[in-house]
Write a structure and sequence with these properties.
171 residues, mainly alpha, 6 helices
Length: 171
């Protein structure tokens, strides 16, 4: 059961990582078009600027869990390498437990914020009549942090399993 959940999470996060990569190109292209129009044609496409902000929110949040899976995130190995092997194993468990706790708190704050934004019909009022619902950008935080939370739980279970396995082998 755990392996199925782990594979499903990895597959979802791979798709999120690919989507994030596509968003990098779309956001970059949008910025180039915006700059080109502004510099060479004295045309300001405000809507491109605001859509870029929303794209960046999605780009950042949905790629967090994928970065954790592939190991492209900041680790605390600088401190952990100085610990004895047994403490190093348990410090890894502690780091993941703290991550699960903090992400849980962030999620508890993010989803009600999204719901409130939808309920209040909060909009980004921008020039030229651009009227974008704010919940779209806020939803990126909820989705991305939830994916990261699930991946942190998986990593915590793996770290705990490895630590317990090594302890029982030594006994």
């Amino acid at each position: 059961m755990f392996n199925r959940i782990q594979r499903l999470s990895q597959k979802i996060n791979e798709y999120a990582g690919i989507s994030s990569g596509i968003l990098v190109f779309l956001v970059s292209g949008t910025i180039v078009i915006y700059a080109f129009g502004r510099k060479f044609h004295d045309v300001v496409w405000f809507h491109l600027y605001y859509y870029t902000e929303f794209g960046m929110a999605w780009l950042i949040f949905i790629s967090l869990a994928y970065a954790l899976i592939v190991g492209a995130h900041v680790r605390v190995t600088f401190v952990q390498m100085r610990l004895p092997p047994r403490m190093r194993q348990w410090s890894n468990v502690l780091v993941h437990a703290v991550g699960v706790g903090l992400l849980g708190l962030f999620i508890l704050g993010a989803w009600p914020l999204i719901g409130e934004s939808i309920r209040l019909k909060e909009r980004m009022l921008a020039p030229m009549g651009i009227n974008i619902p704010m919940w779209i950008a806020k939803l990126s935080a909820g989705v991305g942090l939830t994916l990261l939370f699930i991946q942190f739980i998986i990593e915590l279970i793996q770290a705990l399993s490895e630590s317990l396995t090594k302890v029982t082998k030594k006994e």
